[in-house]
Design goal:
Elements: H1 2-16, H2 21-27, H3 38-54, E1 56-59, H4 67-78, E2 94-98, E3 102-109, E4 115-122, E5 124-126, E6 132-135, H5 138-141, H6 150-160, H7 178-198, H8 212-225, H9 227-233, H10 235-245, H11 249-255
Parallel strand pairs: 1-2, 2-6
Antiparallel strand pairs: 3-4, 5-6
The structure holds zinc ion (ZN).
Zinc ion is lined by residues 153, 157, 214, 217.
């Protein structure tokens, strides 16, 4: 019954609304859409409309959120769940967008029980069951040539948090092996950390060495933005991400 109501609600929205054509034309240049077929683009548009109904996007520091910004953010948030479901983003509502990098001022307790005060400059943040915080800049909406995508990064954290908090392992599907995921990611993470130790100028953003959770989020960015790079650097990680996201973006780039 819940599913039927849910489906009814979804159909009602999709019958009544559409993404304005001039906005859609502006966002289709985004690199993470490359090679998508007509069916994938149609399903992505439907997800964007449902996402925008389910979430609230607010600007911080008087930043005005335009319709084009809403679609741009929703589009990139929906890429990871294109073959999953909007239900993966069910336990939170708000997205807060800052006009530029923001200061994170917080306290945390380390393993020995000592409380530290930290102040970091951040471009995004995802809170457990809370909001997603993003920054809006030229790079958020443009093809930049790098694999960096703060929106995909933060939404990957949201998926990761669905299984035992942010630990680099999202809820795997029944046909996946937890052991294989763990082995593949542990090994790749260790390799990457030693690469960064030797030379921080790595092809993949060195920030991935921060923690297993950041490794998963950064690998997810690379998976969707420059999939061939990930396949070349960490083929087994690519394979696990393809199983989890149920997408093969490398094959899409080869179609072009
Ligand atoms: Zn992160």
């Amino acid at each position: 019954m819940v599913w039927h109501l849910n489906q009814w609600w979804r159909n009602r929205i999709l019958e009544r609304e559409e993404i304005p054509r001039h906005i859609w034309q502006k966002v289709t240049h985004l690199r993470c859409l490359r090679g998508m077929n007509v069916d994938e683009l149609r399903r992505l548009q439907a997800l964007i409309l449902l996402f925008l109904h389910a979430k609230v996007i607010n600007g911080a520091h008087d930043l005005e959120i335009t319709d084009e910004m809403r679609v741009t953010i929703a589009l990139q948030a929906c890429i990871p769940i294109l073959n999953l479901d909007l239900g993966y983003y069910d336990d939170w509502i708000e997205i807060i967008v800052y006009p530029g990098e923001f200061i994170l001022d917080y306290e945390y307790m380390d393993e020995t029980g000592v409380v530290h005060h930290a102040r970091n400059i951040a471009s995004g943040e995802a809170w457990l069951s809370g909001p997603v915080i993003l920054t809006w800049s030229e790079n958020t909406s443009m093809h930049t040539g790098s694999a960096h995508n703060v929106i995909i990064h933060e939404f990957a954290h949201k998926l990761d948090m669905l299984h035992e908090g942010a630990n680099g392992c999202p809820p795997l599907h029944a046909d996946m092996s937890m052991q294989t995921w763990h082995d593949v990611f542990s090994q790749a993470y260790a390799t990457f950390c030693s690469q960064v130790e030797r030379n921080s100028d790595t092809v993949i953003d060195a920030y991935a060495a921060e923690s297993p959770a950041e490794f998963f989020a950064v690998m997810s960015e690379v998976f969707f933005e420059t999939p061939l790079v990930l396949k070349q650097c960490f083929a087994a990680v690519y394979e696990q991400l393809a199983l989890f996201y149920r997408q093969d973006p490398a094959s899409r780039t080869l179609v072009e």
